[in-house]
Amino acid sequence: PDFIQKFILSPHDLKPGSTMPAVLSGLSKEERRSQLEPIAHFLASTGKINNKKVDRQAIDRGNKLFHTIGCEICHGSSLTNETISSTSIPLGSLHKKYSLPALKKFLQDPHAIRPSGRMPAMHLDDKQAGNLANYLLRNSSPELSTPNILYELYRGEWQQLPDFKAMKPVRAGKTTAFDVTVAGQGDYFGIVFTGWITVNKNGKYRFYLGSDDGSRLLIDGKEVVKNDGVHGHITKSGDTELQAGIHQIRVEYFEMAGGESLRLEIEGPSMSRQDISNLIRATREVQKTKPKSVSPEQFAFDSSQVELGRQRFTTLGCANCHEMNIDGKRLASTKQGTGKTLSKLDPNKGCLSEILPAGLPQYDLSNEQRIAIRAAISVGPQSTKKSPQQLIIQTMATFNCYACHQRDKIGGPEPARNAMFVTSIPEMGEEGRLPPPLDGVADKLQTNWLKKILQQGAQDRPYMLTRMPAFHSAQVDQLAAAFVKIDWKSEWELSSVQEPEHRVKAIGRELVSGKALACIKCHTFAQYPATGIQAISLTKMHQRLRLDWFAHYLIDPQKFRPGTRMPGSFVNGVSARRDILKGEPDLQITALWTYLQDGEKAGIPDGLLPDPIELIPKDHPIIYRNFIEGTSPRGIAVGYPEHVNIAWDANDLCLKLIWHGKFIDASKHWRGRGQGQQSPLGIHVMKLEKQVPWAVHSGNLEHWPEGTARERGFRFVGYRLDKKQRPTFMYRHNQYEISEQFIPLPSSKTEANLKRLFKLKSEKYNPAEKISFLVAVGKKIEIDNDQFVVIDDAIRISTLFPKSGQTGKYRRLKQNGMTYLVMDINMNDGPVEFIQVIHW
């Protein structure tokens, strides 16, 4: 409320450059105060202040955030350098304006308070917003910057807390809170913190001690909490009875390696759980402080002025600029203009006068600003339509995009600000530290992705600590459209590769591996780190980039970003791997793009899995029963020495997956707690059946039945192994007993066919009950002499009956936009055997 009152009376004193005018200028100080103060009381009546003490330890965390994520790029950082401060947006005395909860809420969602979007959202979670708010309000209590706790520093390597009393400290002094950074190093040190607190009531107090690595708390020499050992940050608690009065706090702490942190909280009678740092002092006795003097002008809420303030809010024009809703209804301004258009106003009178008439708003305009506005008025209304180039320049200036990005040789990090841009991977050089230039940005990024970045921000470069914020503004959409109009150049068309799509993806997977174009040496792949520097993830390429830019960039990276570390893979129009797709760049780019379009579902490239446990079938098949991606929890994967693999589902009683090459990586399930689903390790992964491929019916099957295998009467019996350890899966349906076995038909590591042998018998055959087999489902199915089936040009299946006289009758069912190829089986002559040969 103090800030509201002072700001209304004199906005330019509190915020130089503010567009908020000093209302009723020219009146005496007493007249202005009597007119405007009621508005402050009205505004103060609209809510209650929820205040909270600043957390000393959060200040340090917020300080690091402010100086890494980009806040100081716009706002500066208590800088004296004239070049920087003249282009910074001053923060002012935030502690005089905001309470801690209010500033935290604003930082998390600034557009809810300021819809213009010029203050962007910085992707702050609850803790980060709290830490940053604490840092920005650090001046709210001068005592917070005063050291309040004693410390002694020790050097050494320990697995447990040592006996610090038997050791000599290397340094001692005072610090604020439990600041472990006083060690001046990240590992191999110990600190003993000592201070005093005063509790006002007798009772049981609980203390929460969190640390990484070990720590313990002693109160008046008695151990209350022990959190010893080498570990990540964990919190332990302990209770003790305390009498009202003064008590000594001693915290012992050591750091072995890795992260380092220390926090102590207290909870007790009439005291909610809170950080103890603000309660500790460096001396046993409380230091006497002078009582604060109260200014006669300090705000004191007067409810009798609220209604008058509400009226003034509408009559003095506040409601012309500011939205205020009372009981769900917006207050409307009653202050009207002259009714004249700007072009008919006298530019030397009114608000533009050098000496304002009494009662008019004072905008604190400079002489240059007045001249510019007069000139604009004198020429009359101008067209508001801007060219795309004008729109780009104006919008980038409005939202301060030029502070980080360069476009058309305008903007980019100023020399004095350059060091403010930091990275977590210095080895990446400028590309890992500085935001990219925006020349040709719409030629590079897909339009929807560009809009998403502008509206929602981006976190695609985790190594770049300066964040790309979110600007929730309609102007941002216009900016994206302007980029597109200027930047788009051409459209790349994928070449035709004479292979099924799943084989083209396998080629793309090989190309990004460390044995081909080596993309994975620099680029991450979803959650898997690269083997070298950690550049932007390959799995996001298809979402972010336009194919046209992707192709041209691969051919000549230096043309698009001079000095980039990205190597050219197609020097002089020839691929570095001439043995793949004849070394033709167009074909290899097609394979890369086709593969990357699967995003995080794409097969993991060779050489990227961290410490894999690869199961390799050599002399006999390997059966892997665990959680397999693409199957139910009862999936059974079988890897064969012939480099062909399957995943059969014992819950749905069907063949879910087939693939070539490597079998499976068991590390996810054989290490730790074994959580998550494991994907196939090889290539050419194809999904086949969703449910049991059998239907038992009365002879009039017009639609393939839906529902689970169990709901349809099928039951899994188990599996048996033959002499070569190959499993045969068995299941039944009332009178029918069914078995199926898989036998690889090798030709090469990537060309092996799969033979699927079915046996069907019934000891109590009932001719009135029919059984049909679902050969295949697809959008396109062709039959060649009742033997050969083509499914979507990717899988070929031939069905054979090895026993003389046995056959099946094919027919098609149209269902859910797909073709179901069904084979009706005649069992009048006894058990039936048939073979499927699958090629993919």
Q: How many β-strand stretches?
A: 33
Largest sheet: 8 strands, antiparallel
Q: What's the overall average pLDDT, rounded?
A: 90
Radius of gyration: 37 Å
Low-confidence stretches: none
Beta-strand portion reads 15-25%
Explain the overall architecture.
By secondary structure, the chain is an alpha+beta fold. It is about 20% helix and about 25% strand. It is built from 22 helices and 33 strands. An 8-stranded antiparallel β-sheet has the order 23-24-25-26-33-30-29-28, with no helix packed on it. Strands 2-1-3-8-5-6 form a 6-stranded antiparallel β-sheet, with no helix packed on it. β23 (about 715-720) and β24 (about 725-735) form a beta hairpin. α1 packs antiparallel against α3 (about 30-45). The relative contact order is 0.06.
Q: What order do the helices and strands come in, and which of them pair?
A:
Blueprint: H1 2-9, H2 11-14, H3 29-44, H4 56-66, H5 71-75, H6 82-85, H7 94-97, H8 100-108, H9 126-136, E1 149-155, E2 171-175, E3 189-199, E4 203-212, E5 215-219, E6 222-227, E7 234-242, E8 245-255, E9 261-268, E10 271-275, H10 306-315, H11 318-321, E11 325-326, E12 329-330, H12 367-378, H13 388-398, E13 406-407, E14 410-411, H14 441-444, H15 447-456, H16 474-487, H17 501-512, H18 541-544, H19 547-555, H20 557-560, H21 585-596, E15 614-615, E16 622-625, E17 635-639, E18 644-649, E19 654-660, E20 664-665, H22 667-670, E21 683-687, E22 694-697, E23 715-721, E24 727-733, E25 736-745, E26 753-762, E27 770-778, E28 781-784, E29 788-791, E30 795-800, E31 808-815, E32 818-825, E33 832-839
Antiparallel strand pairs: 1-2, 1-3, 3-8, 4-7, 4-9, 5-6, 5-8, 9-10, 11-12, 13-14, 15-20, 16-17, 17-18, 18-19, 19-21, 22-27, 23-24, 24-25, 25-26, 26-33, 27-32, 28-29, 29-30, 30-33, 31-32
Helix pairs in contact: 1-3, 3-10, 4-9, 8-9, 13-16, 15-16, 17-21, 19-21
